[in-house]
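#lab-general

N.A. 3:47 PM
ok so I finally got the sequence cleaned up, no stray characters, all 110 residues accounted for. can someone with queue access submit it? mine expired

B.Y. 3:52 PM
send it over

N.A. 3:53 PM
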Amino acid sequence: MTDRKVLSWLSLFTDQPCVLLQPDHIEKGFCPRIPGERLPASYINHYVANGGAVVPRFGGYSADRDAEAVRILQEAYGPERKVVNVYSREILLNAGNVHCITQQNPAPQN
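B.Y. 4:20 PM
back already:
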C-alpha cells in the first residue's frame, strides 16, 4: 500500500466521536546506504518525551525534509512540546532509530 493510500485510508477513521483523523504526510528522509546495510530513514520513528519530542535528522540531501519533519511534528504536538532533531546515521547503523533505543516512562498525570 502506498503512502498516499494509507493517508487516504486513515482519513476514514475518527479519534473520538464524529471527529475524523487528519493525518499529515511527512516525506521519508534520505541517508546514504552502505552496500548491504539497511537504513530505515523514517521520521515516524521518533521519541516523545514529557514536554518534547526527539526526531531523527539525516542531513545532506535530506536537510530540507529534516526541517519540514520538525515543522510538521511541532505543529502536530503543539506548543506544549518542543520538537528537536538529532543526527541519527550512527543510530541507524547500530540500533534502528531514535525511538528504538529509548525506554518511554512518561510522568503520571495528576
